[in-house]
Amino acid sequence: MLSRLMSGSSRSLEREYSCTVRLLDDSEYTCTIQRDAKGQYLFDLLCHHLNLLEKDYFGIRFVDPDKQRHWLEFTKSVVKQLRSQPPFTMCFRVKFYPADPAALKEEITRYLVFLQIKRDLYHGRLLCKTSDAALLAAYILQAEIGDYDPGKHPEGYSSKFQFFPKHSEKLERKIAEIHKTELSGQTPATSELNFLRKAQTLETYGVDPHPCKDVSGNAAFLAFTPFGFVVLQGNKRVHFIKWNEVTKLKFEGKTFYLYVSQKEEKKIILTYFAPTPEACKHLWKCGIENQAFYKLEKSSQVRTVSSSNLFFKGSRFRYSGRVAKEVMESSAKIKREPPEIHRAGMVPSRSCPSITHGPRLSSVPRTRRRAVHISIMEGLESLRDSAHSTPVRSSSHGDTFLPHVRSSRADSNERVTVIADEAYSPADSVLPTPVAEHSLELMLLSRQINGATCSIEEEKESEASTPTAAEMEALGGELRALCQGHGRPEEEQVNKFVLSVLRLLLVTMGLLFVLLLLLIILTESDLDIAFFRDIRQTPEFEQFHYQYFCPLRRWFACKVRSVVSLLIDT
Predict the structure, then answer these.
(1) What backbone torsions phi and psi does residue 262 show, to the nearest 5 degrees?
(2) pTM, to two decimals
(3) CATH code at 25?
(4) pLDDT tens digits, residue range 269-284?
(5) Which domain holds residue 36?
C-alpha cells in the first residue's frame, strides 16, 4: 500500500511543472501548473496576481528551443507549446497596444502599459526627436522620484537613469531642466498619464519590429500598430497601411505577402522575406491577431484563416480573444475600488535601473556614449496627419540624418538638436539600417529586436551583455547567409513553383489511390453495409461492374499468370 501511494505521488509530481514569468517591472512570478493546463489558466493566474481586469491588451511571450519568439496561445496546452525542458521561463508583456492609452479605465492598467512603453523607449523600439525624448524621460523621472529637491538630487542626478540605449550630457541636462521647472507637483499617476499621451502621438508607438528583407534585398522592419501595418527602413517609415485597407495576409516558407486594396480599386501586394520559416509564421500570426483585434467590430466575426488558398496546404490559425471595441465596452462597466499600486521599492532592473539602485548599466562606455549620435534625435518624420496610407517615400539614411552638425534642416522649421560632434553612423542607430560593413553592434541589435535568435535570458531583456568572439563570428555568418539567401529571388520563386506542383501531384495520386481502394472494396468484398449495398444495386454500378471491371480483372489475372509462368520456366 505504501509503495502504491509513493508511486501515485511521484506520477502526480511528474505531471506538474514549474513556471517562472518575468513581469514588466522585472519582478518574477512563479507558479506550478498541471501538464494539461491551458495557456488561459496561466494567464488568469497572472492577472489575479496583478489584480488586473483589463487584461485583453496583455499576453505571455516565450522562446522555443530554436530561439524563436512566440505568443502563448490560450486555447492550447502550455507544455506542448513550449517544447522545452522545465522549469519554463516566460515574459508578461503588452500584446495589443491601446489606441488611446489615456482612455484606459483603471490606473493599474495604465501603469502596466507605462512600464511597457518605458521598456520600448529604452530598447529602441520607440523612436522620437530629442525634444520629445527629453520630455518623456522627465515624465519617468517625475513618476519615480517625485518633485525636484536640491537636497536629495545633486548635480547630474538625471544621469543615474538609463532612459535610452545611448545618452549624452546635453540630453541629461535637458531632462533635468524639464523635471525641475515644468513637472513640479505632478503625482506619479499624472506623470504616467502624460507620458502615455505623449508616447501615443509618436510614429513608432506600439511597434514590435520583425526584421525582414524586401524583394530588392534591402533590410526592413515590419510591425503592426493600433492604426495599421508599417514598414520601417533605417529610421524612416516607408509604408503605412490602415487596417481597413489590408485585405489578406499570407505566407509561404520564408515569404510574407500583404494584400492591400486602396481607393479607386487599386490593389497592391507587398512581399517580404523573413530570416526563417518559423519567423515568417510568427509574423503572419501576429498580423492575423492584430488585424482581428483592431479591425473587427465583434469577436463573432473572427474566422479561421489559412496561409494558403488550397485546403491541404499551409497553416490554419484563428484569433481566440475579444476585439478592441468589446474590450472598451467591457472596461466601461468596471465598478470597483481602484486597486493599490506598489510603485515604491521597485525591483532592480537590468534594463532600466532606477535611481535608487546605483549607476545605470550599459554595454557602451560612458565616454563613447558622449561622442555618438543617438538615433532618437530626428527619427521619423510625422506622417500621422497625412491623408495617404500608401507608401510615402523610400529614403536612405542620408535623408534622415545629417552627416555634420547643422543648425537647421531644409524641410523642417524645427531646430535640430545634435548630441554629438561626430558624424552619424548607421551602427549607432537604435533601429539600424544594415550597411556594407555589417558591424557587430548592428547584428546584435537586429537579433535582439527580432527575438528569433535570442536566448531565454535575452528575452528577459538583458540585451546589454557583450557577445563572445565565437558568438560574434556565428552572428556574422548567419547574417551573411541571410543576405546571400535573398540575392536570387527568381530562383526561389521557381523552386517554390516546383514544390507546389509536386505537392499537387502527390495529393492527386493519394486521392486516386483512395478511390481505387474504395472501388476494390465495392466490387470484391462481401461487406453488407447499407452504404455499399445501395451503391451496388444502382444500374450504373452493375453496368460498370460487368462491362468494364470484370473484363479488366480477367485481363489483369491473365497477365499475372503469364508473368508467373515465365518466371517459373526461367
Answers:
(1) -115, -175
(2) 0.64
(3) 3.10.20.90
(4) 999 999 999 999 999 9
(5) 14-94
